[in-house]
Amino acid sequence: GEDVEQSLFLxxxxxxxxxxxxxxxxxxxxxxxxxxxxxGAGLQLLTYIFSNMDMKQDQRLTVLLNKKDKHLSxxxxxxxxxxxxxxxxxxxMRDTGRRALTFGSGTRLQVQP
Amino acid sequence: xAGVTQxxxxxxxxxxxxxxxxxxxxxxxxxxxxxxxxxxxxxxxxYYSASEGTxxxxxxxxxxxxxxxxxxxxxxxxxxxxxxxxxVYFCASSEWPSHNEQFFGPGTRLTVL
Lengths: 113, 113
Fold this sequence. Notes:
The structure holds two protein chains of two kinds.
Chain A: E1 5-6, E2 9-13, E3 18-23, E4 31-37, E5 43-50, E6 55-58, E7 61-66, E8 71-76, E9 85-92, E10 101-103, E11 107-112
Parallel strand pairs in A: 2-11
Antiparallel strand pairs in A: 1-3, 3-8, 4-5, 4-9, 6-7, 7-8, 9-10, 9-11
Chain B: E1 4-7, E2 10-13, E3 19-25, E4 31-37, E5 43-49, E6 56-57, E7 64-68, E8 74-78, E9 87-94, E10 103-104, E11 108-112
Parallel strand pairs in B: 2-11
Antiparallel strand pairs in B: 1-3, 3-8, 4-5, 4-9, 5-6, 7-8, 9-10, 9-11
């Protein structure tokens, strides 16, 4: 089947902006999510966007959604060393009545001081 | 609130042994999930429970069974562990239908020798 796809690795310098990209599979997905996983921890929801929106901003985070291309991006402004983590995009899984999530493989963000 | 708790944190089994992973949530959520996370991959859904008294298979259910003991607790059982089940297991819960933010436990790291 189709997968939610992300690039595996991104390295930026502290203070720069980071942009993490994702392509998803289901054009009828209602919500799309970005989760953050720090080493040895579970996943934490960073932000989500409803499918009728093009953009959502939340402090240093900006989510852009291109429904035509099924492309989702997460921009982190003024990236800090504490932002180093794995970032997962996710969409509602249709086969579960949209309850469960389908995750990408995650993008490891490394922030260099 | 403790959120989502999982026990144990770590476990080593021999091939053929059985064990049960425990999960509990104190947020009064109706839906609960079990995912596994393997290196370089996103989370994959094993089973989910849309509400108390119901359970359904996810993407990778083979070799597992689940029990939704009550609204708070959702356990995952490996009847005869195999090396392919070496993974990190995450339990999550959500208040469906809302925007379905899923809250994750800290994970159980399981090694099957």
